[in-house]
């Protein structure tokens, strides 16, 4: 931490206030505030760019499903990616018939206006496809769903 503070002081972003009293007080300079704004802008730009890439990937995957004749889809994984996927699915004309998740704490809650159910509900929901809307353990989820399905339902990953 001392090295970081010394670097910030040397760059003129921070100055020490009242060096005679310990612990020292530090003040962010005008240059430091500009530096912080620039870093924030760079971070927000990166986040926005990443979100746009994720949305393009979602849109591409949903377009592929639509071209394969899929109309009814279940989203597997109740999180932020699922919410973005739900919005795009509605835009491209897919009907999201349900959301499932392994996490018992999420089951019974509503996300994107849909009740989150356990994965065992997939067969009852009778989708044309199941789309895994999580990036963690997606391959394992896909294999588990394939084993449990009682119909020729397509299982896709984002």
Keywords:
single chain; 158 residues; alpha/beta; six-stranded mixed beta sheet; two-stranded antiparallel sheet; 8 strands; 48% helix; elongated
Explain what this protein looks like in three dimensions.
By secondary structure, the chain is an alpha/beta fold. The protein folds into 2 domains: 2-47, no CATH class; 55-157, NAD(P)-binding Rossmann-like Domain (Rossmann fold, 3-Layer(aba) Sandwich). It is built from 5 helices and 8 strands. The strands form 2 sheets. A 6-stranded mixed sheet has the order 5-6-4-3-7-8, with helices on both faces. Strand 3, helix 3 and strand 4 form a beta-alpha-beta unit. The longest helix has 38 residues, at 30-67. The radius of gyration is 24 Å and the shape is elongated. 20% of the residues are buried. The model has no long low-confidence stretch (mean pLDDT 90).
Order of helices and strands: HEEHEHEEEHEHE
Strand order of the largest sheet: 5-6-4-3-7-8
Q: What distance lies between the first and last C-alpha atoms, to the nearest angstrom?
A: 40 Å
Strand fraction: 15-25%
- Name of the CATH homologous superfamily of the largest domain: NAD(P)-binding Rossmann-like Domain
Instruction: Tell me the number of strands.
Output: 8
